Amino acid sequence: MTPDHLSPALPRLGFEWPEGPDFIEELHNEWLITNGRGGYASGTLVGCNTRRYHGLFIPTLEKRGRTVLLARLVEHADVGGKTYRLDSEERADGTTHEDGALHLRSFHLDGLVPVWEYQLGPARLRRKLLMTHGENTVFIAWEHVSGPEVSLRLRPFPVDRPHDRPIPSRHLEATVVLRGSQVELRIANDVPPVRLRMYGSHASPFVGLEQTSAVQLYRVEKARGYEHTEVQHSPGYFDCRVAPGETLALGITTDAVSCLERDPTEVFALELERERRLIARAPPAARTGVPARLVLAADPFIIAPMRSADDAWARSMGQDARSVIAGYHWFTDWGRDTMISLDGLTLCTGRFHEAAAILRTFQHYVRDGLIPNYFPDGESEGVYHTADATLWFFHAVDRYLASTKDEVLLRDIFPTLRSIIEHHQQGTRFNIGVDPADGLLRQGADGYQLTWMDAKVDGWVVTPRRGKAVEINALWFNALRLMATWAERLGHDARPYLAAAEKAHGSFNRRFWNEKLQCLFDVVDGEHAKEDTAIRPNQVFAISLTHPVLHRERWEPVLEVVRRDLVTPVGLRSLAPGHPDYKENYDGDLRARDAAYHQGTVWGWLIGHYVDATLKVNPDVQAARALLRGLEEHLLHTGIGQISEIFDATAPFRPRGCIAQAWSVAEALRVFTKTHVT
Fold this sequence. Notes:
Beta-galactosidase, Chain A, domain 5
């Protein structure tokens, strides 16, 4: 990897194709930019949309959530009387327009900003795109690199649909209003106008010549078993030209008119400076190399949630509301993912203020001793069916305090933590509660998936894991021990927490040890009062957490089983090969995918706790760092500069699921810095 323009210490992620890339191959590689509010823009490297989630402008709108407003921009360039097309499309009739690949010569990320270069006969054109941080605003710039003048015809195709909802059968016809230098597209009564403005040395009139597209095919959605065709309507196009050495730009916003009253060149420069500062404030171990690249990869997940209720309580406390998008494109902010990711996303990047804001945001939403499992897109209230997210909350607080020594937050949050423990001991929703007989935490309710292995389709809970799950009780013991420490620090009585921890510790080591397999049962007291002998990665947490619940002499046997059956170059399998439910590949329709989601599929985030556990047994950081090579190589594939949610369980470990996942990035960054050698 050659250095990135942002910093000589930052690995450059990019490709060069002397004759253009292979169209089909590059349909599997995607770019993503975000705005810190949950909004984003995304597509394939060759400019062909393959998902309903692809588009150039997908902002988060109040009460609606993330909404696709500009699906694509058809770009025609005229050079010396010959026409070239910069974008691509795949149609439902089986035809493809691959011009975006034919003329493309390079792609790279400049920091987080995607940059394309096209050879258009004798002319060379560079295009780049960003979302302004904190705004629902996009800027696209075309820089004339060399050759004769280029005329550009830029035709926007606006749509109006929630990004994860079925595609409407009828196309949208937007109303056009010209307001000075701006064009307003009025899409629907409950959607703010989409404002567009051209910037350049020459006039770029908007020509009101309408056009309805051919039926677009979204091949990824077709493979996933979803609606996969769309007809779009364009109200007209911008007629532009750009001379050698000049830059042409298009601004798009649903925010105030003033958002487009800026020089786009300055907007790009400010984004570059913002990204420089992200790296500069990271700890020294994360300022160079792959960790620095992961510092940038972490940024899209930290958001100011678009919930008016959050703004109200946060202002009353003099606090910022912050949360974490679990993954792009379709996840919202999830409690479990947020708490697991907090260390890597915020503490390993020096973003301590945001870490505190995230913890306080979720503290505000505690109900009946539980933090939300997730917040539905566009809604203000969380959904609470989770047995482990709240226990990960204790882990996140622990990591935050270890990094910051913030006694003020500890004093403020301790009453909430105490209440959480009490609710778990007394029993709370979804039959989550301590069994008084052995002090272990049990959970389970018909129709609900309460652990992180939470696949459910058509009422079928694939891995219910009702009973006493191994990682739930590792987290429960860890929380009790942490509470004892914090109680002592604040002058409270720690003895009840120590007593509860001691009881859980004894029961755990007696009940969960599988002598025959020399590892841990995944669930005890499960359905039909059986122990689950499936070999899963959940047992790693009995070693990896701050306070490991498993007896020390059993660590090596457990890790040997995990290494033998579960470890891959890109993470840990969710189930060992050989089990009757094991699935090698995560593909097909929704039911087939969910059947494989936690039944063998590899999860990248699990490598973090596996590294933690192995370093407790063998402090060889070089060997631990070697476990991350597969994820490092993955940065150049699928979501460029990001780490995917999951991978197939067998070679070549094809990336699946979200192209960018918070806990995958966070845990990779955390253990990259943990294994840093000076």
